Structures are given as structure tokens and as C-alpha cells.
Amino acid sequence: MKTLLTLPSVTRADAVPAPLRETGFVLLDGAVDWALVEEAYAAAQKLTDPVTEPHLPDDKEYWHFGRKRAEGSPFARLYAALESAALEILAACGTDAAIGADHKLRVCRYPKPEGDPVPYRAAPHTDITLLTLMPAATVSGLEIQSREGVWSSVEAKPGQLVVNSGEMLELLLGYRATPHRVVWEEPVERYSLPFFVQARSDVLLQSDLTAGAYLKQRLTQLRSTSK
Ligand SMILES: [Fe+2]
Predict the structure, then answer these.
(1) What is the CA(39)–ligand 1 centre distance, in A?
(2) CB 58 within 8 A of CB 120
(3) What's this model's pTM, rounded to 2 decimal places?
(4) Residue 94, exposed/middle/buried by CB under 10 A (0-12, 13-18, 19+)?
(5) DSSP conformation letters of 101-118
(6) Residue 118 has pLDDT above 90, yes or no
(7) Ligand 1 centroid vs 173 CA: distance in angstroms?
(8) Which CATH architecture has domain 4-225?
(9) Confidence at residue 54, expressed as pLDDT on a 0 to 100 scale
(10) Which of helix, strand or coil describes residue 57?
(11) Cα–Cα distance between 154 and 161 in angstroms, integer?
(12) Could you read off the pLDDT of 181-215 as tens digits, one per residue?
């Protein structure tokens, strides 16, 4: 039976750290102008030539917008708004590690399934980021895993950002990188807009590990396991 978990919900960026440390996932209400998110979802439907990862047990396509690629695109204002919210949250966590880093807005499309869908729309994983900020997706399906190993679905409404702590924040400040996945709830196309907040590559996550080296190491690992 599906378990629905009600996430802690806050309305100020500086109120995020306490519940984030506790649960790894928090809803932040009203941090971005929702018209920007709606514009981005409309623009997402017109994108072509997605990246696909056929070797992963995922069923998604995506486009990445770093700062440069976002400039002048329909995603520029959303990138800026999400970056600003992320920097406020991280300042409240006590770190400036993301200032000046190049983040990624992922425009993610989960196609409508044909035939037998793969088990997950996105397989269980943790994000390599400091934080991930994700405006409410077009349909639900996100699930998170508790410290006890129980998977529960979580819901976000228009107006809300789902904030979750990633591996870099775990290494840097001890917040838990929270496992999550995306499952089928309805056999329809789904869009989401996760914003991956990175640390500057020279930031020391631990005494002998820079963020740049860690990112490279994890991406190599992912590529080798997805073959
Ligand atoms: Fe993720």
C-alpha cells in the first residue's frame, strides 16, 4: 500500500536548514514567482534533441541548462530565481560554497509509457549536489526513503519547491544525502525541473577532497555502472 509522507513545509529560506537536517526533504513555499515555472514547463514541451540514458533503469529524457546555456533561453529567469533561493538556503546552513559555481537546471521529460514500462521513471539514487531544488512536477511520483529504509511518496503543490540535501552537503556539513526515486503513478507524460546546486570546484568538501574531484569521481562511477 502506498504510504504518503507529509513533508515539513516552510515559507522562508532561512527556515529550511533545521527540517532539512532532520528529514533531508523540505517544501519551500513562495520562493519563486510561479509564472516562471509555468513558462518553463511550456517551453520544455517545445525542446527537441534530448539526452537519453538507455542503459539506466530509467525512463527519462533531459536537457541541461548551465548558466551560459540558460542565458537568453526561456529558462534564464527561472535559473536565476532558483539560484538566488539556493544561495539563501545555503547561507542559512552556514556555507558560501555555491557562490559563483555553475549549477544545472535539468529540464526532464518522462515520456508516456508504451508497452511495459521500466520499473522506475527514475531509479533510486542520491544527488551529487549540495542541494537540489525542484519546483512541483507536472504529475506526482516522487518517493523518498527514510533512515529506516521505508519508501514513501511525497507531494508538492504549484508554488512549492522541493528542497533536498545531496552528497556534497553530506560531506561538507553532515546533512543526509536522501535516497529518492520516481515511480509510475499515472501512465502519462511527466515533466520536472530539478535545479542541481553545485559547490565551486575548489571547495574542500573534506580535508583532502575538493568538490571538483568528487564530482568527477562520481560521474565516472555513474558512467561505468550504467553500461
Ligand atoms: Fe535526484
Answers:
(1) 22
(2) yes
(3) 0.94
(4) exposed
(5) ---EEEEEEEPPP-SS--
(6) no
(7) 19
(8) Sandwich (2.60)
(9) 53
(10) coil
(11) 12
(12) 999 888 889 999 999 999 999 999 999 999 999 99
